[in-house]
Write a structure and sequence with these properties.
The structure holds 2 protein chains of 2 kinds. By secondary structure, chain A is mainly alpha-helical. Chain A folds into 2 domains: 146 residues, no CATH class; 79 residues, no CATH class. Chain A is built from 8 helices and no strands. The N and C termini of chain A lie far apart (46 Å). In chain B, helix 1 packs antiparallel against helix 3, helix 6 runs antiparallel to helix 7 and helix 20 crosses helix 21. The relative contact order of chain B is 0.07. Chain B has a 6-stranded mixed β-sheet, sandwiched between helices. Chain B is an alpha/beta fold. Among the domains of chain B are: 192 residues, Arp2/3 complex 21 kDa subunit ARPC3 (Orthogonal Bundle); 216 residues, 3-Layer(aba) Sandwich (Rossmann fold), CATH 3.40.50. Classes of the chains: A mainly alpha, B alpha/beta. Chains A and B meet through helix 2, helix 4, helix 5, helix 6 and helix 7 of A and helix 1, helix 3, helix 4, helix 6 and helix 8 of B. Chain A: It is a multi-pass membrane protein. Chain A: InterPro entries: ABC/ECF_trnsptr_transmembrane.
Chain lengths: 250, 699
């Protein structure tokens, strides 16, 4: 692993943000996402960035957690700004920066959810948020089980992909003779190896499910929204209203 | 089965999309994202694909926000089209027809979205046209490119005035590309996956008749099998023949046999699968996983963990409203106070104890433990066996322990030996003294290590003050290795003993050059080919510059086999100098018939896969072999064969480093033993005599 990846795991800690119900945090990310998509103005983006920073401060996310993108990432943004400014001056640079900021704050807000929420709380929260869909006779319980198992399997799968890449790296690279197996393109082999391993994994998981007598309960201690969640949602609502007003007035 | 494949393959799609959206320049991974879901669509009914789409979309949203969610949704649509056409067995013309309809529609979705989201549209179009104009401006400055600049200017103006045409066309072209790429990859992949066994080999009455109906009629014991036989497909050689046995309530029975003796199949029949011949008498239904029925604990600990937290896993799958005292169950299996831990943080032994707790939550009458200790370190193995042995006395549960280790069978009331599908009266040869003390399983018999022999030469690899931490500087920092000093000598067999979580896999990766030590160095000596004794000390070169010079064998062999056939695999792993003659030679070297060269990789057994990996590694002619848990999950016969093979390789001069929690049978390979505990290297008690004339052992 040459590049530092963003670990999608909870940052250990206990704060107001950590204690919020996972569903509330997901809802907030959804609201902020829709908000910036509908209204990508500086006030709206600034509001989202503000929410992200304030949340990170409250949650006590240490500076070390923030991913450090490689130098060329900033370089590319710099080139983009320069190119835009050369045509449309400061206004052009600002437009380009606004488009970049849009992408960054959205990724930032969802990473914050993962950093402040135990993985185990995510699936039950999504299941609870989907509950109203039952009215449309949709198989919500089935979906909830799949989401929970998917989240459960994700770290395992990422580990396997890492191994796969390492195994591939260890192989010799042939140059010259093209008919030799070592000179063939590897991508198909890699995909097949990943799929084959996934097939075995899924039949093992299927047996584990059958051994438990099928699906049923997902959690030992169900959790739900409380007063703090109402406060958080209210605060986000107010912030959105302010951002919209500011956009209209400016 | 559907849930599991939806979860695993959906997870792969999400992983690809999340990687593409979080890591810059990994966008290519996004093009592969539809493949896993397309496999699901091609193999199961459409309803599973709908479930997969919902699940992956939700997970992607939770992991990486609205952008990733939209990408996953698009991938799922592409996957659905391609997979469904494959499932119906149609060809490329159908795909083309579907593409002609679907691509313009999908391309239209973004036009529609941008039509509504006016400010977003204005922003993106402006940023895009500004960028193009800016590039055009640069072109104008260089004389010969002036006309290109004019073209770009016209292009940008056209985007500004007719944005919807450009968005629609690019969306359509993008969809066409991803459909065709997915089709092009999916074909060979599905073709190659046909040999992979993938079915739920357990039968459940719950699926057949519904849970409440089963709960009324559950009575698994006493179970009597008469003349039971089993074959996996009609005409295939039977796995089991003429099995007669009886299991009564409260018994502790061990079933012992080698890999391929049919013992796991017998476990499945005891758990409720219908045999192909003979009869199994029970007073009622087997009730697998049902309250008061049969419980089954399987071999691989990590795949059995279905809940995210320890407490969740205990109740996972129980019918709503069942009251379970989770804390008491956890205390009983020795996991008291760990209820809030994530299941992935547990060691293999702890995970198996958790699986037993989940089984006990169902108050079973019969508990079948199928090879539960084979992936667990010796200490964990002892705990597990004690726990299982106590269940008949404590709860009156009949326990059937299926194992390939004679020492584990020793504690049972009764031992049934299986050999090639039949019950045999005589204990197999590896049956040890039944007085083996289960309370002290970690005690090693004071065996002597292998004779170093004349082959041991100078230093080959030197690790100097090596430390490694995962994600250093972040709140997730985990110190994996601390100040490891180790010298590997040419031609020696070094055993690094470490339990789960001791940092042994990290050490193996560092020795293979896959990871760069955080501090300290790991140098391979004599790579330049000139060893100059007069110079006194050859500093060597960092192993990271010679990836491949050290062959690394992973614990999970299948991930290392990447070609279709054994011959291709060995040739690909060995490099372009390897021809068919060399393939035959290394195959025989690892004890496989040369005819196996034509076999498909996915049709091999676990032990065979491991040997093919070894063959590929040897074909590369590495300076040194590093093997991570080369014996995990193998039965005694296969283990002995691998050990003999490794001993032979070492005798022929190969340097071998084995990293394992298992030190029972590896002494004939290894001349030296060190111990890795919590990332620190300790000298092993057996390593008292250093190599003559040199500072042996741990430096």
């Amino acid at each position: 692993m040459t590049m530092r990846t963003v670990p999608l795991r909870q940052v250990p800690g206990d704060s107001f943000v950590h204690r919020l119900w996972a569903g509330t945090k997901l809802l907030i990310v959804l609201i902020l996402g829709l908000m910036t998509w509908a209204l990508p103005s500086w006030p709206a983006l600034g509001m989202v960035a503000g929410v992200v920073i304030v949340t990170a401060l409250i949650a006590g996310i240490p500076l070390g957690a923030i991913p450090r993108p490689p130098w060329w990432f900033w370089g590319l943004i710099g080139i983009g700004v320069a190119v835009n400014a050369s045509f449309a001056g400061l206004a052009g640079a600002l437009v380009f920066l606004r488009a970049t900021a849009l992408a960054l704050v959205l990724v930032g807000s969802s990473i914050l959810v993962i950093w402040t929420t135990p993985m185990a709380d995510v699936a039950p929260a999504i299941a609870r948020l989907m509950r109203p869909l039952r009215w449309f006779r949709l198989p919500v319980d089935e979906w909830a089980v799949s989401i929970a198992l998917c989240l459960r399997g994700l770290p395992m799968l990422i580990e396997e992909l890492r191994m796969l890449r390492a195994a591939h790296k260890l192989r010799p690279v042939a140059r010259g003779r093209t008919d030799h197996p070592s000179a063939e393109m590897g991508i198909l082999d890699l995909i097949t190896a990943a799929m084959s391993s996934a097939l075995r994994r899924s039949s093992e998981m299927a047996e584990a499910i059958t051994a438990r007598g099928g699906t049923g309960r997902l959690t030992a201690h169900p959790s739900g929204p409380g007063r703090a969640d109402a406060v958080a949602l209210l605060a986000i609502g107010v912030a959105c209203a302010i951002a919209i007003t500011a956009t209209v007035l400016l | 089965m559907e849930f599991a494949s939806v979860a695993i393959f959906g997870g792969l799609t999400v992983a690809a999309v999340v990687i593409a959206s979080v890591i810059p320049l990994a966008q290519a991974a996004g093009l592969l994202a539809p493949i896993p879901l397309a496999v699901v669509a091609a193999r199961t009914r459409p309803r599973a694909l709908v479930t997969a789409t919902v699940a992956t979309t939700a997970v992607a949203f939770a992991m990486a926000g609205t952008g990733a969610m939209a990408t996953v949704l698009g991938s799922a649509l592409v996957a659905g089209i391609v997979g469904d056409i494959k499932r119906r067995g149609r060809g490329f013309p159908t795909l083309l027809a579907a593409t002609l309809v679907a691509a313009p529609l999908l391309g239209g979705v973004s036009v529609l979205l941008l039509l509504i989201l006016v400010p977003l549209r204005e922003l993106t179009i402006e940023a895009l046209t500004n960028s193009i104009h800016g590039v055009a401006g640069l072109m104008h400055r260089w004389g010969p490119f002036d006309r290109v600049g004019n073209g770009l200017d016209a292009f940008a103006d056209s985007i500004a005035s007719h944005w919807w045409v450009w968005i629609w066309v690019s969306g359509t072209v993008g969809t066409v590309i991803s459909l065709v790429v997915a089709w092009w990859i999916l074909g060979p992949v599905i073709h190659r996956l046909r040999d992979v066994p993938s079915e739920d080999t357990l039968d459940s009455d719950v699926q057949a008749t519904g849970r409440s109906a089963v709960e009324a009629g559950v009575a698994p014991l006493p179970i009597v099998a008469e003349g039971v036989g089993f074959s996996y497909s009609p005409g295939a050689p039977p796995v089991l023949r003429d099995i007669d046995l009886r299991i009564d309530p409260g018994e502790f029975v061990a079933i012992v046999g080698a890999n391929g003796s049919g013992k796991s199949t017998l476990a499945k029949i005891l758990a409720g699968r219908t045999p192909t011949s003979g009869v199994v008498h029970r007073p009622g239904l087997a009730g697998l996983g049902v309250h008061g029925g049969t419980a089954l604990v399987l071999q691989r600990p990590e795949v059995q963990m279905l809940g995210s937290r320890v407490a969740d896993d205990v109740v996972w799958g129980l019918p709503a409203g069942t009251e379970v005292d989770v804390d008491a169950l956890l205390a009983e299996v020795g996991l008291a106070g760990l209820g809030d831990r994530e299941t992935t943080d547990l060691s293999g032994g702890q995970q198996q104890r958790l699986a037993i707790a989940a089984a006990l939550a169902r108050r079973p009458q019969l508990l079948i433990a199928d090879e539960v200790t084979s992936m667990v370190d010796p200490e964990g193995r002892g705990h597990l066996l004690k726990l299982l042995a106590a269940l008949p006395r404590r709860h009156g549960i009949a326990v059937v322990l299926i194992t390939h280790r004679g020492s584990e069978a020793a504690a049972a009331d009764r031992v049934i030996h299986l050999d090639r599908g039949r019950i045999v009266p005589h204990p197999p040869l590896w049956m040890p003294d039944p007085t083996t003390d289960l309370d002290h399983p970690a005690v090693v018999e004071s065996s002597s290590l292998a004779d170093p022999g004349p082959h041991i030469g100078g230093p080959l690899m030197v690790l100097d003050q090596v430390s490694y931490a995962h994600l250093p500087g972040s709140p997730w920092e985990v110190q994996a290795l601390t100040d490891v000093n180790l010298t590997v000598y040419r031609g020696e067999g070094l055993l690094i003993v470490g339990g789960n979580g001791s940092g042994k896999t990290t050490l193996a990766w560092i020795m293979a050059g896959l990871l760069t030590p955080l501090t300290g160095t790991c140098h391979l000596l004599g790579v330049t080919g000139k060893v100059t004794p007069a110079a006194g000390f050859d500093a060597g070169e960092p192993i990271t510059e010679h990836v491949g010079a050290v062959g690394l064998g992973f614990q999970h062999a299948r991930l290392q086999l990447q070609k279709v056939t054994v011959a291709d695999e060995i040739m690909a792993a060995g490099g372009e100098k390897i021809g068919t003659a060399e393939v035959a030679r290394v195959l025989e070297l690892v004890g496989l018939p040369r005819e196996m060269a034509a076999s498909k990789v996915d049709s091999l057994s676990g032990g065979q896969m491991r040997r093919v990996v070894l063959a590929g590694l040897i074909a590369r002619k590495p300076d040194m072999l590093v093997l991570d848990e080369p014996l995990a999950g193998l039965d005694p016969v296969s283990r002995d064969e691998i050990v003999a093979l490794l001993a032979r390789l070492r005798a022929e001069g190969m340097t071998i480093v084995i990293i394992s929690h298992d030190f029972e049978s590896l002494d004939s390979v290894c001349t030296r033993r060190v111990r890795l505990v919590d990332g620190r290297l300790l000298p092993d008690s057996h390593d008292v005599a250093p190599l003559p004339g040199r500072d042996g052992g741990v430096r």
